[in-house]
Amino acid sequence: MGADLNAEGASGPLCADCKRPLRETLRVETLDAVADGAARAAQVAVSFCGACGTAISAIPQPRAPEPPRVPDPENPEDLEGRFQLRCRELIEEIQRVGFMPGGWIGLITRAGAAGAARELLSSGRILPVTPWLLQRGREDLTMEREITRGQWAEIFSHAERAEAEERLQRAGREQ
After folding, report:
1. Which of 69, 113, 152, 160 is most buried, most CB within 10 Å of its CB?
2. Cα gap 94→129, rounded to integer Å
3. Residue-by-residue DSSP string for the chain
4. How many CB atoms lie within 10 A of CB 63?
5. What is the pLDDT of residues 59-69, one digit of tens each?
């Protein structure tokens, strides 16, 4: 494929099959390669002539890293374990609406969900995802709103639940 003029006077590379100028017809599409078993499918960028479909190249694309995930609780049957599973659900929903709460996941990985919540409440730190969710009308996905739910009253003190409520109010005012 050279830079010679074609019959229509255009310069540049031509498709080897249909001889149309690739400057007009070149297309690239990213495809998921067929994966075996439980392996994640690799992606391949395929360049082809849009006029006749002749493949020109297929280049493997780097895989996006797996998003971090909340680990399984030590005991999924006790209240703290169920709180951690609930936080996992909240985080997965937050990821679906477009935010990666990596700091929250890291805290949970290190201290468990209840421990992470207590640490955040006692330090006065507000997770970056909290105001982000409030701006989008998704208070229901915040750690703070979850802490205030009655089902967790045995693992969070009245003072911790009140602090969670105050933090929601404060984060809402700071938007």
Report:
1. 113
2. 8
3. --S---TTS--S-B-TTT--BHHHHEEEEEEEPP--TTSPPPEEEEEEETTT--EEEEEEEPPPPPPP-PPPPS-TTSHHHHHHHHHHHHHHHHHHTT---HHHHHHHHHHHHHHHHHHHHHHT---THHHHHHHTT-GGGSHHHHHHSGGGTTTS-HHHHHHHHHHHHHHHHT-
4. 10
5. 998 877 788 89
Question: How far is it, in rounded angstroms, from Cα 83 to Cα 75?
Answer: 11
> What are the strands of the beta sheet with 26-32, ordered from one edge?
26-32, 43-49, 55-61
Q: Tens digit of pLDDT for each residue in 69-98?
A: 999 999 999 999 999 999 999 999 999 999
